[in-house]
Write a structure and sequence with these properties.
Family: Belongs to the DNA mismatch repair MutS family.
Number of strands: 27
CATH architecture of the largest domain: 3-Layer(aba) Sandwich
Protein name: DNA mismatch repair protein MutS
Structural class: alpha/beta
Number of domains: 7
Organism: Shimia sagamensis
Helix content: 40-55%
Number of helices: 30
Domain DNA mismatch repair proteins mutS family: 706-722
Pfam families: MutS_I (PF01624), MutS_II (PF05188), MutS_III (PF05192), MutS_IV (PF05190), MutS_V (PF00488)
Radius of gyration: 39 Å
Amino acid sequence: MKGDKPSVTPMMAQYLELKAQYPDAILFYRMGDFYEMFFDDAVAAAEALDIALTKRGKHDGNDIPMCGVPHHAAEGYFLTLIRKGFRVAVCEQLESPAEAKKRGYKAVVKRDVVRLVTPGTLTEDSLLDARRHNFLGAYAVVRDEAALAWADISTGALHVMPLSPVRLGPELARLAPSELLVAEGTEADLASVVEDMGVPLTAVSRGSFDSVSAEKRVSALFKASSLEAFGAFGRAEAGALGAIVDYLELTQKGKLPLLQPPLREATQGVMQIDAATRRNLELTASLSGGRAGSLLATIDRTVTASGARLLEQRLSSPSLRLAAIRRRLDSVSYMAEHRSEAADLRDALRKVPDLDRALSRLSLDRGGPRDLAAVRNGLGQAGEISERTYAGELAEDLNTARNALRGHDELLNLLEEALIAEPPLLARDGGFIAPGYDPELDESRELRDEGRGVIASMQAQYAEQTGISALKIKHNNVLGYFIETTAKHADAMMSPPLNETFIHRQTTANQVRFTTVELSEMETKILNAGNRALEIEKRLYDSLKNAILDQSGPVAAASKALAEFDLAAALAELAANENWTRPEVNESLDFAIEGGRHPVVEAALRKSGDPFVANDCDLSGGDAASIWLLTGPNMAGKSTFLRQNALIALLAQMGSFVPADSARIGLVSQLFSRVGASDDLARGRSTFMVEMVETAAILNQADDRALVILDEIGRGTATYDGLSIAWATLEHLHDVNKSRALFATHYHEMTQLSGKMAGVDNATVAVREWEGEVIFLHEVTQGAADRSYGVQVAQLAGLPAAVVDRARVVLDALEKGEREGKAQKALIDDLPLFAAAPPPVAAAPSGPSPLQDKLADVSPDTLSPREALNLIYELKDLAEN
């Protein structure tokens, strides 16, 4: 007896075969207008996408779970799944159902996976942030070498650098890749570093990192005999690059994106900033995780997507190359000095589309007519910008950029001639080729759109040729188009010479029907005109796409040049609007800031109408360490002062003007910030442990060109423990690291170090006390704070009055005992027990005072100036008596 279980259908067998090839991805199986998912994929996708879970048929006696999404809306579902940690294998139909039936009635439509969607391989605008890169990274370790490579397939960027494992975390923090490739078996070694950065880890075969095959793979991609054509790359660097190319071949199913030749970077070329410092300074994201409130969001005035990406790149990677910094500052200065031209330039740049991502989509066959138009429009604006009337010689970088905007006339003319102004999104929709560009297309469109007119014209032609005015061209489903005339005229048409043109087809009771070779051909053309027009446009689309890809190098260079212009103009606009100044960056160890401000805090205060108090900072210690020991109460602005000086150094070395009246900065090689901390519960770390780990990293790495800002070291433990740690940390910074540093503390005992160490100076944030309340002046001055004003700050925070009063009693007792030399235990034993005081009862009024009696008789409107002055003296006497 045959089994009770139904056999697997051919379609389901095809599905299971494809799914077996991609066990770690959700398979989007194309069925007509939907992508369907089955079995465990359906269960997981339905939950992640919040869509209905249904069933279709049975397998092994059980219902097959199923869910689906419309193919035209698939991109949104891709993004949701990617963000939730899934990968998606996209399976398309490779033939129509009609073509499948030619192989047999029950033949299954051919299908295959055409793309594997992962976080690092997205290209669609709807899935990406246009103003940020989307990097795919690969980390390779080959014996004693290690290297990191990264690519953005949506823009074509490809970079590589030698990188020791200890530097992997900071570089991941700088690049923020969406996905990191590592060799199978090494995941555990890197998991902790990668998890700290929040980067998804993808393990690939060790063969992908093999340096020999990797070099061949990358060389073949760029049609070069070896990687030496692009520079000297170590084995680990070649392995990392090869892993990226291999992964792209896998995920893109052989359709490799348009990558630029690999650019080798060196760690010594950019300012080193670790992950904790980036987080503390909120460079590209605020502590809450969003862009709003970050330095990047505050200073971004760019008007193009490529300009915004360049801004983030330079902000994340301030340069250590003095010549490059000065060239960038020259570009900003030029734009600042030519405000009118810069304003016109920004207007033109607003019309520039994202050329890089259009090129990428075209190279991967994910583009459409609008990407062709984007290249046309971008090159058109590039030509316009290159011809703008810049009176003097441009700054060096801008002049180089302007040259890259020229020389695209041939491609631009081709695209302008071929494309309509506003093409549709998809090539299959047709209608994007301009009239007059292709005669064959124009004819097909005319037949498609004006078939009746063409037939009427032929009818008039035949009537004139035969002399039969009653001749008609008609149509039915059996004969198609035919010529019809009465029987009395038929003899003439069947006789020479007309019979050579007109071919008899059918005779009815009253009519005779003919055709001609021309009419038969026209009928075929009319019936096929729509499809023919689409086929021609598709061919022309491919031709235009190939013409663009043949010029991809110059087009990419133009895009980079437009970004350069955009960034220079944007930074000049920022400097003019915010009153920023050009910094002097040199090779000394100076750090002299006059009137420095925190850009983010200043912008926030401006919204509320409050002014920002600017402050000076001078850490110019020559060849020795230079440290400011900063004391003062909480809420007085110490952390803001620390951060603003770090940001000024960073902005200067990225090539921007800075928020200060003047700035002289010797190159900063490393930027370290330990300001603020919180528990790391997932890793079992207390706030104090996090603080110590970050401090240890600084003391173990900072060199004499580093700029270090430290806030409240040692606050997370007992007083004497904390003081001893802070004291030793400051000594180490001064004697061993010899760094420029700002060190904020509440341990006033440390102010004594300024008299013991030549490179330590005391500074404080000025405050005033008025009637028991503290007033913050936010002014940084030389000297040390006499106390921390903690009780007053607690009162401002809203602590109950009873708690504040009790705190004052305890504080007074402790300070008095310390002055009298009492032991700590004795001081505590002498303190009276806390007793919550009952709410004060308002005293009954005792009648009007003499002052009130005097004022009651005064009429201000009738007083002369002399009388008013005498009244003030009288009131003063009454008050004193």
